[in-house]
Amino acid sequence: MGRHRTDELDDGYRASEPPPRRRSKNSRGRVLVPLAGAVAMAVLLGVAAFVIFNRDHDCSAGKLPLRVVATPDIQPALNKIAGTYNKAMHSIDSKCVEVSVAKEAAARTANALAAGKSKADFWVADSSLLMESMRATSGKDTLPQVEGSIASSPVVLAAAKASAQKLSGALQPSWTAMVSAANVANVDGPGRKVRVLALDPQKNSAGLAALLAAAGTAKEAGQDKALVGALKELSGQLAPDSTALLASLTVKSGSRVPVGVTTEQAIHAHNVKKPEAPVVALYPKEGTLSLDYPVTILTKDTGVLKAATDFKQELSSESARKVLRAAGFRSADGKAGDALSEDKGFTPEAPVALDPPDGATVTRMVQTWSRLNLGTRLLTLLDVSGTMALPVPGTGMTRMQAINKIAAEGLGLFPAGSEIGLWTFSTHLDGKGKDWKENVPVGPLSESINGALRKDVMGRTLAQMRAKATGDTGLNDTVKAAYGQLTKTYQQDKVNTLLILTDGAGNDDPDGGVKNSEIIQYLNKTYNPKRPISILLIAFGPDAKKGKKQMETLAKATGGEAYIAEDILQVRDFFLQGMERRLCTPNCDG
């Protein structure tokens, strides 16, 4: 039989079937067919949505670990962002990315990376300054490129909120004021009321940024010598990290107000943890540098590289930025969140940004800090010849008394770990034919000599020193003996220096001894630029200028310098200039 259309039957039904009974308009039966269609459509849509969802969140091939290493300050915020990211099931090649964020100091990660031992796939350091320094020393081809910044935090001065009011008359927030306050030679400056604390620039990026900012502004302000004095003082006032530094700001110790250098974010973190001892941020008027939290992708694996790129994109999302701002960071563009409000001790508006230094400048500053903070090994030769008993016009002192005061002023600039000794010199001072005498052997100032600290022994010896009325100078013989001893006992980890304090009469030795030309020949032959021992000569008195040429020739034969003091207080600057020269030795004049 052929096929028949049902609509050819009565009412569209087969003739063999009875027609259905009609229902009223309000009957529920009329909605069953469309309802069934809707249910079917919903089921189909649900299946489609399931398929689409799983296509973007497909973990059928397992997990894809992404190992992130971040500095301790930003790690908690990144860990929170990573937790949200992991829950969203980001899929790469049918594997769901699983981000873990480990905490590690940037310097440690950098060292591991330089040694080829880093196991991280993704690194968030705290500063591009560190990366630039590494790149300048290791070579551009050996390190991966930084791929943008995810946050920022300006480096600022900090003080306890309880003592900040006391600073208004003693220290205006600026890098130049900080340098003046920290300058060890400026005993009459703001350092009388303010004690500056710092972070080690070799271990802490905020400390390095502060050093670079202070050095740059000091140079523009003509504070080069003051900067050396400040760095020398700060080397003994270093805190191991921002947590320790900020905690020390709120502890009373003496009459001076402690001021530190750290980041905004570190201050925020301190205040959250210790609300009973808040710290406020002080913004340098010249502007500042900021930590910029650069991202560096380290992995070479293709799949992990895709995951790293995806997570990097997540870190630039507004939701991630909110997490970072809530933790006290600014966005990369300087935008602050509620955590950095005025009522919490901050200035929400981004501070003026100083020009960031290049890699060479960063490297040079790190080397400067390292060299400046090498230990000191100093042998002082003190002139006690007969002319030292003569008066210095207008001072009420003899030359001997003036030189002793100069020695006390200068030697007081050196920290306790310095190794210092004292010889006096004049003809036949220690028996016939020997023009020098060892009064205090070279050793640490903090070391005990017969029950007394070497520092105290030095002070007493200087105070009791008297000129030998019948003695001539005998300078050249003494210099040869002292330089020879320092050469034999040279210490590689210290700056070795021969300091000569005299009234400037030059070599005066009726018995002959070593002639001027002979001592220069000896120094030229003995001086070793790989093991440098410099002569620093300071002369004071009316005869000083007469022997200036000879003294300069003597000092420069060893890469050193000779200074003529017209005022006792000038000695502070001379000692600082001597310290400054240690930064360029052995190439200060070449």
From TrEMBL:
Keywords: Membrane, Transmembrane, Transmembrane helix. Residues 1-14, 335-346 have a biased composition (Basic and acidic residues). Pfam families: SBP_bac_11. The chain crosses the membrane at residues 31-53. Residues 377-579 form the VWFA domain. Gene3D superfamilies: Periplasmic binding protein-like II (3.40.190.10), von Willebrand factor, type A domain (3.40.50.410). Residues 1-28, 335-358 are annotated as: Disordered. SUPFAM superfamilies: Periplasmic binding protein-like II, vWA-like. The keyword S-adenosyl-L-methionine does not apply. This is Substrate-binding and VWA domain-containing protein.
